Amino acid sequence: MRRKITVLPGDGIGKEVTRGAVEILETVAERYGHEFEFQYGEIGGQAIDNTGSPLPEQTIETCKNSDAVLLGAVGGPKWDNQPSHLRPERGLLKIRKELNLYANLRPISYYSSLSESSPLRKEIIEEVDFVIVRELTGGLYFGKPSERTTHDGKEAVVDTLFYQKDEMQRIIELAFELASKRRKKVTSVDKANVLESSRLWRETAEEIAERYPEVELEHMLVDNAAMQLIRNPRQFDVVVTENMFGDILSDEASVLTGSLGMLPSASISTQGPNLYEPIHGSAPDIAGKNIANPIAAILSAASMLRLSFGMEVEAEAIEKAVGETLDSGSRTGDIAEGQVRTLTTTEMVAEIKGAILDQEAIT
Ligand code: NAD
Ligand code: IPM
Ligand code: MN
Questions:
Q1: What is the ipTM of this complex?
Q2: Which residues bind Mg(2+) (predicted)?
Q3: 118-257 has which fold?
Q4: Does the annotation flag 224 for ligand binding?
């Protein structure tokens, strides 16, 4: 079957890692007899440079007219001093809103061959396997007003944390659905000792939990959660939390896997195409050097195959190839703890591609 995939490479290493992910998708298409049609769109800083907007209308149309979207990353120092409507990040927020991508799934999985790449001890990170379910289209990122202002004649600023209850319901429900197919535990992370929004979040979680008697619900304050993630990460199965807490906790959690360059994500839409993206950014410090780790982007492409196209076997083929490549000792610089030779981005992609082609056909 023919599938239309919109690719939004964006800025910095976004371009380098999506190129790798597309190559892997092409390999899978060839190997398993699928037809993927790739269409490209502009987003972020490069879109600002070329069109004056971080998310041109044309890009929105292209995305809506596709079966799934693969995104790299946006942003960079070149655009850091732009007014807020002309920042690359605004393009990313807008595409999330336009496509109603209310849930962002960020799985954290342990690779035994990377146990030396994490600064944490092996006994702590061994067998870690949980998913952060991050609310993606509400909260502080989207609340209005969000502006510079004056108060009592003095310079001031306001950002707004706004949620409607149904926005909480749908994300928490998704977390329970996921947990009911996993180890049956939901940890809802909030700041209910301080924030009214968190108190409604907690209440909502309690209400939804009644419909899932087989799933255990636990509440955890976000400051404690940040600590527990490092102290005892195996206690988590599904972590559900609001937009900004989820952003921060997932970068922290990436350390458990060895590198930010390992973590994929899937953004789930209420109705349209889903979007798949690594959780990392455009990494200006290593951009243009062909040394970024492409695995987060490649694993994001694998989730696309599984969640948008129902191609479970093909998704597993990619994940297995990544595992085998790491087992064989291949490393990009970010996960190369103690290793003499490191691979470039393109070399890593070639290794993973080779591993897919070498696999016995799984059907
Ligand atoms: P970042 O995620 O870009 O980088 C943080 C650190 O991790 C850097 O040292 C970087 O070199 C390293 N890193 C990230 N991905 C890597 C990979 N695949 N391989 C190897 N190393 C990797 O975060 P930052 O530096 O805080 O932000 C840079 C820019 O990216 C900012 O403009 C920010 O707004 C943007 N950003 C975009 C997204 C996105 O598009 N989804 C996500 C986060 C940050
Ligand atoms: C992410 C990023 C974005 C976010 C930024 C670039 C807007 O950090 O995807 O995690 O905070 O959502
Ligand atoms: Mn982030």
A1: 0.99
A2: 223, 247, 251
A3: Isopropylmalate Dehydrogenase (3.40.718)
A4: no
d(CA 241, CA 247) in angstroms, rounded, equals 9
Output the pTM of the full model: 0.97
Which residue's CA is the nearest one to ligand 1's atom 16? Answer: 261
pLDDT tens, position by position, 134-153 = 999 999 999 999 999 999 99
DSSP 165-211: HHHHHHHHHHHHHHHHTTTSEEEEEE-TTT-HHHHHHHHHHHHHHTT
Question: Do the annotations mark residue 328 as ligand-binding?
Answer: no
How far is the C-alpha of 69 from the C-alpha of 49, rounded, in Å?
22
pLDDT in tens, 24-80: 999 999 999 999 999 999 999 999 999 999 999 999 999 999 999 999 999 999 999
Q: Relative to the CA of 92, which ligand 1 atom is closest? A: 40
Determine the distance from the C-alpha atom of residue 116 to the mean position of all C-alpha atoms in its chain, rounded to a whole number: 24
The protein residue whose alpha carbon is closest to atom 32 in ligand 1 is 75
User: Which CATH number is 1-107+260-363 given?
Assistant: 3.40.718.10
Our answer on whether the CB atom of 179 is closer than 6 Å to any ligand 2 atom is no
Q: Does 295 contact ligand 2 (Cβ within 6 A)?
A: no
Residues in a beta bridge with 132: 106, 239
Where does CATH 3.40.718.10 sit in the chain?
1-107+260-363, 118-257
